[in-house]
């Protein structure tokens, strides 16, 4: 049976079309429903845009409002067709075209909803055009098979293509069901994760590390649950898959030890709160603030805007200097040496005044200057200042204050010594034999 014959059979026998007058009335009502749906969508979208402009704090509500814009036309059209079909059934009139239009409008609504969920899951900037096209083609193809009456035959053919692995039977139909269901469920799970992430990010009472940890637990839990449900719904026996999954888990575990270690280390870092987003840390030669805590790595961004990805395991096993772990106040030491011929008290006063050269130096704790000792080349002094924004860097503060000290010392003729050595030449009798000469 070709496509034209199948369509003719579906429209002529499978559906009660009635007389030409009945068909014309149904077509007129369908056109009226389409026009009314366009009008409702226009007014609804205008109202939603006004509401979104007023809503600036609740991200979840904004997501819901934008979702309603995408499905308003399809849901309105489906509702109007269902009402018209109900009236025709009550009056004993044929509803063939309505029965044909209802699945199409439902598929349209499903496509719009799934594409919206896909964009939520992908986040800002995520490329989803290819996936949107795949979702649309799959749903419309399924609807076409259903309307043509081919769906049971196609399903039977796909179910007949199978392979057996021990006691496990895997058919092409089961694989397709699992792929479609897992994609839909994981897509919905990721959309829920995005909503939960927006909600938890707005919760200021929770520690930043706890928020990130909760988001990751929710993400992996929902994705795992979605995959289990998809396997069960696709007809796979979970008990049979447990043995295969265990063997694969052992094999993969040996090859992915580092990945597993980084995942576990990531959760440890999140829940013990030793390192949190926004902390300023130094590990090895990397200095900067924590821009992101991922499942496998930590992103440290320096003042030059360069991101360094550090594996979580290295943060657990290596020494990490956290500049803002218990307190964001950081002390900066600036050692200076002056000559013995200069007045140390005057130099200390000038250094204390120079500490005001940087506006990042805080007043409490106050800057201090101390005489640390007497070196080989001069008197050792040290200026200590405090800052409360280590993420802005410390070298710029050192530079500003050192430059101010140099200018003040130059103005007051205080010298900064450099290493000096006195060379004494011993007079030697030219007639005396050298130690290596024979007597």
Give the fraction of residues assigned to helices.
55-70%
What fraction strand?
A: 5-15%
Q: Tell me about the largest β-sheet.
A: 5 strands, antiparallel
* Neighbour order of strands in the largest sheet: 6-5-4-3-7
The helix/strand order is: HHHHHHEEHHHHEEEEHEEHEEH
What is the number of helical segments per DSSP (H or I, 4+ residues)?
13
| N-to-C CA distance | 125 Å
State the low-pLDDT regions, or none. 1-8, 10-14
Backbone shape? elongated
Structural class: alpha+beta
* Rg (C-alpha, Å): 38 Å
The number of strands is 10
On the 0-100 scale, what is the average pLDDT? 76
How would you describe this structure to a colleague?
The model is unreliable at 1-8 and 10-14 (pLDDT under 50). This protein has a 5-stranded antiparallel beta sheet. A 3-stranded antiparallel beta sheet has the order 8-10-9, with helices on one face. The protein has a two-stranded antiparallel sheet with strand order 1-2. It has helices spanning 3-14, 20-54, 59-91, 96-122, 129-148, 151-160, 172-201, 208-233, 238-255, 257-272, 312-317, 344-354, 395-411; strands at residues 162-165, 168-171, 280-283, 286-293, 297-301, 307-311, 321-322, 330-338, 368-374, 379-387. The chain is built from 13 helices and 10 strands. The protein is elongated and about 135 Å long.
